[in-house]
Amino acid sequence: MADHRHLLTANLELSVPDRDHDVEALFRIWSDPASWKHAPELRHLEPSTTADWLNRTVARWERDGLSYWTVRRRDTGEVIGSGGASRHITGSWNLLWRIDTSQRRRGFATEIGRAAIAAAVAVDDSVPVIAWIRSSNTASRRVAIRLGLIEHGERDDKGNGVIRIPYADRAI
Q1: Angle made by CA atoms 32, 61, 133, in degrees to the nearest 5
Q2: What's the Cα-to-Cα distance from 172 to each of 39, 76, 97, 135, 152, rounded to whole Å?
Q3: How far apart are CA 62 and CA 45, in angstroms?
């Protein structure tokens, strides 16, 4: 199996998060209210929330061989977000892209999504790759469509009453 811990795309460097060095940069992004217009309840209000998220993410790398990356621009080395594919509670792959609002509209989410889908399929192609997106999040819905994912109607993805639209690479 290929090692997906560190990948380079056309514009981005994708790497396993560093628990000691990525918290500050990722907290800045994950705490930005403008970044959470469609899901304000998920915004990180304390750096400890981001540190906990990073710990879970790194543990998934160790357990599953794939999870979310810290995303840096190749030209500057600046941390501009996180994204990738991690196991969902259903066993499928969950796609994520969280980009600094100042870096949006440059194709970075699509670039992360393509790398994540390829990595997820390489690690385990027996389960779908799914981006769970709120219907109001038209920008992420457009990214899912650009990635070639198929809309499967509104559903409760975690059994918690939050309705999202799954966009998947196959039937779910």
Answers
A1: 45
A2: 24, 39, 21, 18, 8
A3: 27
Predicted TM-score of the model (pTM): 0.94
Strands 150-151 and 163-168: antiparallel
Question: How far is 24 from 47, CA to CA, in rounded Å?
Answer: 7
Domain ranges of the chain: 6-126
Per-residue confidence (pLDDT) for residue 36, from 0 to 100: 83
- 92's CB contacts (< 8 A; 6+ apart) are 127, 128, 129, 130, 168, 172
**Sign of the CA dihedral with 168 first, then 108, 50, and 59 last:** positive
Helices (H), the chain: 23-30, 47-64, 108-123, 138-146
CATH fold label, 6-126: Aminopeptidase (3.40.630)
Query: 96-132 pLDDT, tens per residue?
Result: 999 999 999 999 999 999 999 999 999 999 999 999 9
Q: Which whole number is the average pLDDT over 143-149?
A: 98
